[in-house]
């Protein structure tokens, strides 16, 4: 596996913004997989014979290719589409390999690119998928028409026409000269686990949870945007992806400013005097006069995160994305309280990757709200991120509460009128 480790180091050096993803991937050697592939749990399965057949630069390109499948959530998107694995395989490779070419990476011969199918470059995977499906239907219709035209006058078709398979045959890229198209074995939905995939809780190579994967994606997306801002040289497709990932669903700054009267809106932009800092004009004033400096008053926000058994890893991933939005858009002093049937220890955080979510039992967000109210100092606002399958406080809390409902919520547990409700769609 020396080539894989060398490729990991090469990518970290050339693309430092991918570091969080590179070191999150767990490498699993397996002769059962034909080439390479990843699963939804961020395990990279590697066939040693395939790896040894490649040049070092090609191994580096394939590793980058696999990371892109993980970062772009191709497994989940395939499930959402109910996608045909082969068509989705081709579509995702077209989208990824365009960016690989722009990034100056080398891939094995026979890779899939949009122009080989007569398609426009730098489009989304879903666009390529629909286009390839349409090409397959047209190809199938043409084949059936040719088969019907070859029938004899007495109605007896030839053996080729009679045995024609009506299943869709995916279009082949032009210009491959009959060579087998190179693809990695990555794209089947999780429900169609391949023979080489390990169990989620495998002792030596456990899968990343969706919440952990979302943290990694967030770190990479922020690093990409920072790199693009200061140094440039990031493929356009990766920048677009990063902008979509970093942006939360809820515009927290606007929501808080609009709905809070005496809380966050009144503290944003305010300062408090302190003699621990020197006033910025002290250098041009009489040294005998000591003026206090100041520091910004940040809004204090407590986030109650539903960690009960009914909340999926995917929901927790979205919850972490919203917390990142609060940190970035509001610049808040933030405390996270994991809550199932009880409120767990509060965590003061400055970054999403500092959060440790605990729980897994029953559900009662009113307990988490009560715990948040007991924090010192008291928060200016409480945000509850939950699937909505929870009891709510019967009385209006003394500070504003915003409920971010992950998914569709529940009619059995309506959110009280005194709590501002916002919906967070789950992709």
Summarize it.
This protein has 427 residues and is an alpha/beta fold. Helix content is 39%, strand content 14%.
Protein architecture, described:
α13 (313-330) links the parallel β6 (300-306) and β7. The protein has helices at 2-14, 19-24, 48-52, 56-71, 74-81, 85-102, 125-149, 159-162, 210-230, 236-246, 252-259, 264-267, 313-330, 365-373, and strands spanning 26-29, 36-38, 43-46, 271-278, 292-296, 300-306, 333-339, 347-349, 381-386, 401-406, 420-424. The two termini are 35 Å apart. Residues 155-167 and 260-270 have low confidence and may be disordered. It has 427 residues and is of the alpha/beta class. It has two domains: 2-145, no CATH class; 249-427, 3-Layer(aba) Sandwich (Rossmann fold). The strands form three sheets. It has a six-stranded mixed sheet with strand order 8-7-6-9-10-11, sandwiched between helices. Strands 1-3-2 form a three-stranded mixed sheet. α1 (2-14) crosses α4 (56-71), α4 crosses α6 (85-102) and α9 crosses α10.
């Amino acid at each position: 596996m020396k080539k894989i480790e060398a490729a990991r180091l090469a990518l970290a050096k050339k693309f430092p913004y991918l570091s969080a993803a590179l070191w999150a991937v767990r490498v699993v050697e397996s002769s059962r997989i034909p080439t390479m592939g990843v699963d939804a749990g961020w395990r990279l399965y590697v066939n040693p014979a395939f790896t040894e057949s490649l040049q070092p630069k090609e191994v580096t390109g394939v590793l980058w290719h696999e990371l892109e499948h993980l970062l772009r959530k191709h497994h989940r998107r395939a499930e959402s589409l109910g996608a045909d694995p082969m068509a989705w395989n081709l579509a995702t490779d077209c989208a990824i390999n365009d960016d690989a070419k722009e990034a100056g990476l080398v891939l094995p011969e026979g890779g899939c690119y949009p122009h080989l199918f007569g398609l426009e470059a730098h489009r989304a995977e879903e666009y390529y998928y629909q286009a390839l499906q349409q090409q397959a239907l047209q190809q199938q219709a043409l084949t059936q028409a040719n088969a019907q035209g070859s029938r004899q006058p007495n109605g007896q078709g030839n053996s080729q026409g009679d045995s024609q398979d009506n299943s869709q045959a995916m279009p082949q890229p032009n210009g491959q000269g009959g060579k087998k198209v190179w693809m990695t074995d990555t794209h089947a939905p999780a429900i169609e686990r391949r023979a080489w995939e390990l169990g989620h809780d495998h002792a030596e190579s456990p899968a990343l949870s969706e919440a952990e994967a979302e943290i990694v994606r967030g770190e990479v997306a922020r690093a990409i945007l920072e790199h693009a801002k200061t140094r440039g040289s990031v493929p356009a497709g990766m920048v677009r992806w990063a902008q979509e990932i970093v942006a939360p669903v809820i515009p927290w700054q606007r929501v808080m400013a609009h709905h809070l009267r005496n809380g966050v809106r009144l503290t944003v932009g305010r300062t408090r005097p302190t003699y621990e800092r020197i006033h910025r004009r002290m250098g041009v004033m009489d040294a005998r006069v000591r003026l206090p400096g100041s520091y910004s008053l940040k809004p204090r926000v407590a986030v109650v995160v539903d960690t009960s058994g009914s909340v999926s890893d995917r929901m927790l991933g979205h919850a972490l994305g919203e917390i990142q939005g609060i940190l970035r858009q509001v610049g808040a002093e933030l405390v996270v309280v994991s809550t199932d049937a009880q409120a767990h220890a509060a965590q003061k955080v400055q970054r999403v990757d500092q959060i440790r979510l605990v729980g897994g039992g029953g559900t009662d967000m009113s307990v988490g709200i009560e715990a948040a109210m007991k924090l010192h100092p008291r928060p200016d606002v409480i945000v509850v991120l939950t699937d909505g399958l929870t009891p709510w406080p019967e009385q209006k809390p003394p500070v504003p509460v915003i409920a971010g409902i992950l998914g569709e919520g529940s009619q059995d547990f309506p959110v009280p009128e005194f709590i501002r409700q916002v919906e967070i769609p789950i992709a």
